[in-house]
Amino acid sequence: MRKRYFFIPLISIIVISGVLIWACKHPFGEGLTIINIGKKVDYSIEEGGPGYKGEIGKDVTNKIIKPDKVQVFPMRDGNNYYRIPTLIQLTNGDLLAFADKRIGSIGDVPKSPIETVYKKSTNNGKTWSEEKRISPPSTSKSLSYGDGAYCVDRKTGNIICLVVGDEGFLSSKPDKPIKTRLIIGRNNGATWDAPIDITDKIYGANCKDPDRKNWNGAFVTSGNGVQLRNGRIMFVLNVRKSDKVSPLYNHVLYTDDGGATWNVSKGAPGISKNQSRGGSEAKIVELNDGTLLMAIRPEGIFQRFLAKSTDNGETWGEMEPRSELPSSSSNGDIIYYTSTLNGFDKNRIITMFDSRPWKVGGGSPPGDPVLYWS
Predict the structure, then answer these.
(1) 213 in helix, strand or coil?
(2) What is the pLDDT of residues 355-372, one digit of tens each?
C-alpha cells in the first residue's frame, strides 16, 4: 500500500512535534472562518495529522512519522555554516536535502564563499549519505553559489537547480548584477552539469528585453520551485526595478523545456496594498482549476500576502494581506498536499512559516513556526 510521509525542512530537517497548528478554511479556498484547534498540538500521530480522515485515497493512507529528530546538516561545523535547507523527492522516491555551505561566515551573498551541497536518503529520511557538492569549489566571496532553488522535472527526472552569487542583491546594478546560474542534476543526482550563467536571460545590461535590462537586481526565491500540470517549471523572482532598496516585485521565472530556455512573466502581483515595500520571497501552488496561488513573504506588514494568476503565471492580480496569516518577514513554504485529481478524497494545501517577527531595535529572531492547512 502506497503511503505518504510529510517532512518539514528546517536547519536540521526534522518532523516537528509540538508546533502550533491552526486550521483555516479560507486562505486557499472559500469562506473566512478560522478554527484554532489548540496550542502545542502533537500531530506526530496519524489522528493529529493535517486533514487526516483515515483512508484518504483508494490506495493511500496518510501517515505522519513519529517525532524522531534526524539531523541532516548542523548549523555550524568548524568554520562552515549551513543555511537555506531544501528537501525534494526524486522520481524514484529518493530524497535529496540541499543546503548552502557558507565558508567562514553565516552571511548572505557576497559576505562569504558559498557552495551548494546535498545529502541523499533512500529510506524516507531515516539515514543520510555523506555530504556532496554540486557546485564548483568556492574560494572567493566574489564567486559563490548560494540561496539554491530546486525543482524535479517529472517528465525527465532531472533536477533543476538555480543558485545566485557574486554580487549582493541590494548592491546589484544592471552593469554589475547579482548572477543566477543553472545547475542540472541527472541520473537521480548521480551526475551534475557544470553551472550555466542565465543572468542575461532574466535581466541586466546584456538582457535583450528593453524593460528588464534596466532592472537593478533579481534573485530567485530559495527553496522549492513548482512544476505545473502542463510541464512548465517556475520559480518566483524578487526584483529591484530601481536603485532603491524597495519596493520589490515578484515576477515569475519559468521554463517550458526543462531548462533549455528561460522566460520572465510580463506581470507581477500588484502592490497597491503595500506600495512602499512591495513583495518579497514567494512560493506558488497550482489549484485544481489551473489557477496559480502565490504566497508571499511580508515586508513592513506582518501578514502573509496572497495573489492569483489565471494565465499560467504571465499576469497576476493584486497581492492581498491576510490577517488570519500573521507572519514574520521570513521565507516560508506551501505545498499542494492532496488533490482530487490524483485520486484523493479532498483537496488539501499546507503552508508553514515563522509567526514571530523580528523585534524592533533588536531582540529575538523570527520563530514559532506555524502550520496552516486548507
Answers:
(1) helix
(2) 776 555 555 666 677 777
Cβ–Cβ < 8 Å for 322, 306: yes
pLDDT at 160 over 60: yes
The Cβ of residue 307 has, within 10 Å, a number of other Cβ atoms equal to: 22
What residue has cell string 517525532? Answer: 67
Q: pLDDT per residue over 44-79, tens digit each?
A: 233 333 333 333 344 544 555 555 688 999 999 999
Query: What is the tally of structural domains in the chain?
Result: 1
Cell of 305: 500576502
Could you tell me the pTM of the whole model?
A: 0.83
Question: For position 366, what pLDDT does the model report?
Answer: 60
Burial 328-367 (b: 16+ CB within 10 A, else e): bbbbbbbbbbbbeeeebeebbbbbbbbbbbbeeeeeeebe
Contact between residue 72 and residue 88 where contact means Cβ atoms under 8 Å apart: no
Q: Are 207 and 222 in contact (CB under 8 A)?
A: no
Work out the end-to-end distance of the chain between its first and last CA atoms, rounded to an integer number of angstroms. 26
> Which pLDDT does position 282 carry in this prediction?
97
Task: Determine the Cα–Cα distance for residues 279 and 238; give it in Å rounded to an integer.
Answer: 8
> Could you tell me the CATH number of the domain that includes residue 368?
2.120.10.10
Separation CA 243–CA 26 (nearest Å): 37
In the chain, the amino acid numbered 305 is: F
C-alpha 45/C-alpha 102 separation (Å) is 36
SS3 204: coil
State yes or no: cis peptide before 110, omega within 30 of 0: yes
Cβ-contact 75, 65 below 8 angstroms: no
Asked if residues 49 and 43 have their Cβ atoms less than 8 Å apart, the reply is yes
Pick 6 or 192 by higher pLDDT.
Answer: 192
Q: Which residue has the cell 502545542?
A: 40
Q: Residue 194 belongs to what domain range?
A: 2-373
**Taking 80 as the threshold, does the pLDDT of residue 319 lie above it?**
yes
